[in-house]
Write a structure and sequence with these properties.
alpha+beta; elongated
Length: 77
């Protein structure tokens, strides 16, 4: 995304949402890497949840993470 990411409306919305809720980052690191969240089940269950940031500040829905984590079945030993 590099510089074009700063011109996207959604990025600025996410920035102001975080700022209003009191979040302040440390501004360290490269700052151009988008993140993601994966919930991976045991054994052959595979990926139960995948969330990739499409633009800076995308947030995963916490209830989705909890729901996916509840689907993890313990692997028989």
């Amino acid at each position: 995304m590099m510089l074009s990411g700063f011109f996207r409306f959604g990025v600025w919305q996410n920035f102001f949402r975080a700022w209003k809720s009191g979040y302040s980052g440390n501004l360290e690191g490269e700052g151009f890497t988008l993140g993601g969240v994966y919930v991976i089940g045991a054994g052959g269950q595979g990926v139960l949840l995948e969330h990739r940031e499409k633009e800076f500040g995308d947030k995963v829905i916490l209830s989705s993470v909890l729901e996916a984590a509840e689907k993890i079945k313990p692997q028989a030993s």
